[in-house]
Amino acid sequence: MNAKLHVAVVGCGIGRQHIAAYRNLPDHYDVLAVCDVNVDKARAVARDAGVPRVSADLSELCAMSDLDVIDLCTPPGFHFAQILQVLAAGKHCICEKPLVGSLREVDELMVAEARAGKRMMPIFQYRFGHGLQKLKLLIDKGVAGRAYVSNIDLAWRRRAEYYAVPWRNSWETELGGTLTGHAIHALDMLMYAIGPVKNVFARAKTLVNPIRLEDCAAVSLEMADGSLATMSVTLGSAVEITRHRLCFSNLVAESNTRPYTNSHDPWTFTGDTPELQALIDQTLAGFDPQPERFEGQFILFHKALQQGGEPPVTLSDARRAVEILTAMYKSARTNQDISLPLPKDEWYNGWRPTTGDGGTVAG
To answer: Which of 164, 196, 250, 306 is least enclosed, having the fewest CB within 10 Å?
Structure first.
């Protein structure tokens, strides 16, 4: 049996879901430590999860010789420096989204990862839902045919209590608004299935909440394969949904509309002819369901570390996400179509407003 990996989780917000996922994989992981600047919060999480160690200092974790992996679930503005610290300490690193705030920082992380000889895995857990995995199977087997148009609707509800968390509503610590913190998962699902983006036009506004960051957006995309895609995003919806609808030459794929698990079953795959429907059904009959969400990503990370090969999500994947974020903010501020790949111009250093933290998405 493969050796267990010893993990520490930093941050007790979304980090609690990470801890639960590791505990669901007892043959693969042991969580040895929980870390949070609020040590009382860390103690409570550790007690509930049966984790033996508690810390308020990332440096203490980096000095623990029996840790293999440090999992960062901290505010986005801290990610870049903390990832560098973890890699320099000789630990593998996992980090929540958004990974960092610029293409320059991603490129520097690639250099640091290679220098350390350790792996850095960004989090994109939505990829592992069975519905999206079935679509990927149909595409990879050539059943779906040519992509025509893909549509994403992300309509969530966020109000004052959401922004009461101190690090939110800040370009410095949150790195961006709904594009960065919410829509990026839905976009990653699209790029995971269809491939990279060629051209972007985006509009982003602050319409719902009295905040510095965008909370509504409309985005038009041309994909590298020639197909088209659209995405609408709002944090002002009384009914929360996330929906993907992808139209191919041979079928239409439609997700469920649950806001936070729309990559899971049920998805509907409708063939263009009875013969194509039979081929879809035959192909999906061979689908091999694997763990979903964080468990699905973590179990494949364990496999990559034990057997060699690439992690299920790589820094190259994160770079693609950061590039599309950069392009969307650049388009929204300049009112221009933005072609990818992006050059190493002033936007290579990030999309945060140069006017300071009080800037707006259109500033």
So the answer is: 164
**Neighbour-count burial for 266-298, b at 16+ CB within 10 Å, e otherwise:** ebebebeeeebeebbeebbeeeeeebbbbbbbb
What the block records as the tokens of 74 is 């901290």
Q: Which CATH number fits domain 5-125: 3.40.50.720, 3.30.70.1400, 2.50.20.10, 3.40.50.2300?
A: 3.40.50.720
Upstream peptide bond of 289 is cis (omega within 30 degrees of 0): no
pLDDT, tens only, 68-117: 999 999 999 999 999 999 999 999 999 999 999 999 999 999 999 999 99
Give the residues across from 125 on adjacent strands.
Answer: none
**Contact 32/64 with Cβ under 8 angstroms?**
yes
Torsion region of 356: left, alpha or beta (phi above 0 gives left; psi -120 to 50 gives alpha): left
pLDDT tens digit sequence for 112-157: 999 999 999 999 999 999 999 999 999 999 999 999 999 999 999 9
Size (the chain), residues: 363
What count of other Cβ atoms lies within 10 Å of the Cβ of residue 313?
A: 25
pTM here is: 0.93
